[in-house]
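May I ask you to comment on the folded chain given beneath this request?
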Amino acid sequence: MQNGIDKASLNQWYVLDTEAVIPVGRSQNRLLGTDLTVVKQADGAIEVFAEGRAEPLPLRHRFGFLWATLGEPEREIFPLPEADEPDRRYVPCGVVTVKASGLRIVENFLDMAHFPFVHTDVLGAEPHTEVQSYDVEIRREEDEVWATNCTFFQPQAALSAQDGITTQYMYRVMTPFTTILYKTCPNATNRWDVIGLFVQPLDPGRCRAHPIMYLIDDVSTTTELIHFQQMIFLQDRIILENQRPVLLPLEPRKEIPTRADASSIAYRRWLKEKGVTYGATTAAA
């Protein structure tokens, strides 16, 4: 434990910003309760300094983002082969600040049950409210949580979708604060659209969310795609900022799950196994 931060949270790579929006000169940022100073030279070279440290932080440049760590990650940033496919649209969707635990945001991303009630007539609609059984596993070799064989009827599964379809989903949680969704691609039946959500915990109950998409879509404009994704996330933010407790409960029976919450159950179990406490209401077992 360093400065109240558990090792599992400390020793991770985190997105700080989309590289293209980082201004030349000095700018401020924050990660895990620590103030950061970002220094970008005219030639594009970047250094990041944490308050109280003389040496710059380790950095990585991946998926169009600048990543940093306050700890010593045991592995490099997770692979995402779709990010390197030349025919995919790369759509960084900006950043949204949320007054909620970063763990809450990841868990909300995994939840299909809220689609008809929060994203009405877009990602879900009554009477199609039932979450069908799906498969969840903690893949030990990759140390990731996966939910597969997920299906849900959606009136508009993507901006390019013309009619309602039963959408296929796969969810992947790579680190406590990063997750990816693979979903039915309306424009290519043999491929997936890919939507990532990389969460930057500013403090235990406050974070910045960085959504990104890799899509097969040669029709929609970039502005339209960004507006669609931001509309979805801003609908989620209203719910996230009103959840109580603010931090994610890891105590048994603190929140009663249903069959639809299988991915949440696996995610919380995985967090407890890792000893994650940053953004949670209890020390992990």
User: Anything to note?
Assistant: The first strand starts at residue 14 and ends at 18. The chain has five helices and 14 strands. The mean pLDDT is 85.
